[in-house]
Amino acid sequence: MGSKKKVHAFVRIKPTDDFAHEMIKYGDDNKSIDIHLKKDTRRGVVNNQQTDWSFKLDGVLHDASQDLVYETVAKDVVSQALDGYNGNLAN
Predict the structure, then answer these.
(1) What is the pLDDT of residue 89?
(2) Is the pLDDT of residue 41 over 90?
(3) Cβ atoms within 10 Å of 11's Cβ, excluding its own
(4) C-alpha distances in Å from residue 12, one per residue of 4, 64, 69
(5) What global pTM score does this model have?
(6) Residue 55, Cβ neighbours under 10 Å: how many?
(7) Sheet architecture: strand order including 24-26
(8) 19-50 b/e with 16+ CB inside 10 Å = b?
């Protein structure tokens, strides 16, 4: 059997006019993001709503061009798929 390859996970963040800048913090390593939501006060005093998530990734592409996304994420997957290997890109 050939060498094993790991699954790579990237996230592309495209800010818009309505982008929630105060909710998302990027790690200094450009490989992690933290998301914080304010508690919904309408749910009462006892509120077990999850408000924080942290994700460690292979890369965070913040406001990246389509060309950079292709070069960083898709180029090798497409090339290997053309050679007969399985590959998957999710949007």
Answers:
(1) 87
(2) no
(3) 14
(4) 26, 7, 8
(5) 0.71
(6) 13
(7) 24-26, 32-36, 52-56
(8) eeeeeeeeeeeebbbeeeeeeeeeeeeeeeee
